[in-house]
Amino acid sequence: MSKGERTRKDIIDKAFALAGDVGLEGLSLGTLASETGLSKSGLFAHFKSKEALQLSIIEEVSERFTNLVIRPTLAAPRGECRVREYFARKIEWVSKSKPNGGCIYMALCQEYDHREGPVRNLLVQNQQILLGTIARIVQTAMDEGEFRKDLDPIRFAFEIEGITMAYSHIGKFIKDPQSLEHAKTTFEELIMRSRVAG
User: Fold this and answer.
1) Is the separation of the CB atoms in 103 and 19 below 8 Å?
2) Residue span of the structural domain in which 105 resides
3) What pLDDT, on the 0 to 100 scale, is given for residue 192?
4) pLDDT of 125-169, one tens digit each?
5) Segments of the chain scoring below 50 in pLDDT
6) pLDDT at 143
7) What is the pTM of this model?
8) Is the residue at 180 inside a domain?
9) Domain holding 71: CATH number?
10) 7 assigned to some structural domain
11) Residue 10 in domain
12) Nearest-CA neighbor of 83 among 149, 147, 32?
């Protein structure tokens, strides 16, 4: 890695940590310059605009999520085992992806819920890809004869993401100590409803 690449990575790492606390819009180039020991002009040498930096942070979030959640999930055996691996990895991600706890993806999606532009578009694209990936994971359980043939993989993806979103909100915001237990119980109920009868 060249010096320029190392500097760019350091900027993104620091920006990732800051964005976890203040969001992408609240990210101050002055604060980031201070954190990295660079001048504002030094930052702009690597990112020509604040938006370019924001997009790079989302790409970093996506890469970390892929490495920590998706790749290990796809390495698990096909079928229900793979579905369970995804849920376990996603719960861990929700618990730890932000420096102060919580899911940084969810936080950024909420921040850009009513905004338009390239940053929101990239977030939407990433979430659409994720739902498709979950649906394909569920499909493996159907193909293996473990889940019902009439199951809707997209609806399953909707439900599993709903469980993890509720866990993030109720666990972090309300600080309900039962949130993890509730998430696991609800997931088990989803699995039971999805299995082939018998």
Assistant:
1) no
2) 50-194
3) 97
4) 999 999 999 999 999 999 999 999 999 999 999 999 999 999 988
5) none
6) 97
7) 0.90
8) yes
9) 1.10.357.10
10) no
11) no
12) 147
